[in-house]
Amino acid sequence: MSQETKPKSEAEFYQRDRRLHPPALTPDYKTSVARSPRYSMISLQNSISEMTGPVFGHNDIDPVDNDLISNYAKAGDPVGERIIVHGRVLDENAHPVRNTLVEIWQANASGRYRHKKDNYLGALDPNFGGCGRTITDENGYYFFRTIKPGAYPWRNWVNNWRPAHIHVSVFGSGFVQRLITQLYFEGDPLIPLCPIVKTIPDPDAIEQLIAKLDLNSTIPLDSIAYKFDIVLRGRRSTLFENRLEGN
Amino acid sequence: MPQKLDYLRESASQTAGPYVHIGLAPGAAGFDIYEQELGWDIAGPNATGERIRVEGVVIDGIGSPVKDVLLEVWQANANGHYAHPDGGGPVEDGFRGWGRVITDFETGEWAFDTIKPGPVMGRNGRMMAPHLNLWIVARGINIGLNTRMYFDDEAEANATDPVINLIEWEKRRATLIAKRSERDGKPVYRFDIRLQGDDETVFFDI
């Protein structure tokens, strides 16, 4: 691999573009009002504290942890639309993010979470847990098999419904890349109505969170596939020294 | 026509929501699914350094504890090395330096057991005082909040820490300093995080 495509590992990460991310205070999402800082963040240049992050290996997880159709099945398969969610974790330079932990969680086909705090009347599924995890391969590739989650109501305005979504957590190689986001599904009419989606000020950034129907990866007579690429912060090529240490 | 830069854009953040525990701490959500949950053992049995407990509560703008928070910690070992290929040096077998905890659903209290980190080499050869890097997500928090926890018994190192000294308002620096006490002969550091208001904790854009 050339020097250009493999930056020295001590290279700093690009600054986060806060204009594409939701700001902290987004009053239409009511809970944010009392949970958002009022002072500006202090911007830090990267030090070793920010540029490093936890390393996970295959010893940490079970190979079947990425199969939500089977990982909680007790007496049969869960009910609902069988789907595959797959894609790549890339950085802003379009380099694969290898061997990184991807964790997901979601409601079942009824829009009900297996969580003691969820009392929605949508039924629990005895064969569905709703969480999975995997580690990307050498190409940054990952996949999960699951049930397409249902929409569900939440107490924000009186008649708010979350679009079908899967929560996604990714690490990357440095703590600065730590990201939690949500995956939405192409064509869902609830997406433009959702106050949580609309915390994101940038329409292109919203579009980037919508998984696309992927017929080429669909398994005939078995499962529909959706493709979802995740982009983490990239790091600068060290054209000149960063001088992180020493003088 | 100007050249177009071909960078990708980072995926936008979204709140972790109220049920973050299902994915990241399913045992706490009330069900067993994984052989092992991640993030419970930060330092491992071989780590040198002082064993400490860190605890606190996250407080919202009303002054109420936030009861559905998930915190992650990233820290160096006692020699100031991170468990990462670019971490500055070797770490003990089993030292991970990363932890994940949730708050108690009734009280909002969180706690973790670890070792006290050593000072870490910062930019331009300036040493950083011992600190923990913390990341906080919850319902109502649209993008994870980064902060640092420093130790009140490291006053001398804190005074020259390059990050603390970036904070122009000296009064705000105090929001990053945990207070040491002893309980049953074991050191405990108290670190309450205030999301909003007069004593709002300093958060960093890292």
- Subunit arrangement of the protein: heterodimer
At CATH level 2, the architecture of chain B is Sandwich
Q: Helices and strands of chain B: which structural class?
A: mainly beta
Morphology call of chain B: globular
Number of domains as seen in the coordinates of chain A: 1
In whole angstroms, the N-to-C terminal distance of chain B is: 34 Å
Write out the CATH superfamily name of chain A.
Aromatic compound dioxygenase
Rg of chain A, rounded, reads 20 Å
What is the name of the CATH architecture of chain A?
A: Sandwich
Secondary-structure-based class of chain A equals mainly beta
Helix fraction bin of chain A: under 10%
CATH homologous superfamily annotation of chain B? Aromatic compound dioxygenase
Largest two-chain interface: A-B, 93 and 82 residues
Low-confidence stretches of chain A: 1-8
Strand content of chain B: 25-35%
Query: In the CATH scheme, what's the topology name of chain B?
Result: Protocatechuate 3,4-Dioxygenase, subunit A
Question: What is the arithmetic mean of pLDDT of chain B?
Answer: 95
CATH class descriptor of chain B: Mainly Beta
Summarize the structure.
The complex is a heterodimer of chains A (247) and B (206). Chain A has 247 residues and is mainly β.
What does this structure look like?
The complex is a heterodimer of chains A (247) and B (206). Chain A is built from 2 helices and 12 strands, in the order E-H-E-E-E-E-E-E-E-E-H-E-E-E. Chain A is mainly beta. Chain A has one domain: Sandwich (Protocatechuate 3,4-Dioxygenase, subunit A), CATH 2.60.130. The longest helix of chain A is centred in the C-terminal third of the chain and has 5 residues. In chain A, strands 2, 3, 4, 5, 8, 9, 10, 11 and 12 form a 9-stranded mixed β-sheet that branches. Chain B has 206 residues and is mostly beta strands. Chain B has a single domain, classed as Aromatic compound dioxygenase (Protocatechuate 3,4-Dioxygenase, subunit A), CATH 2.60.130.10. Chain B has 4 helices and 12 strands; from the N terminus they run ααββββββββααββββ. The two termini of chain B are 34 Å apart. At the A-B interface, strand 1, helix 1, strand 3, strand 9 and helix 2 of A face helix 1, strand 5, strand 7 and strand 12 of B. Strand 1 of chain A pairs parallel with strand 12 of chain B. Chain B: It is an enzyme of class 1 (oxidoreductase). Chain B: Its EC number is 1.13.11.3.
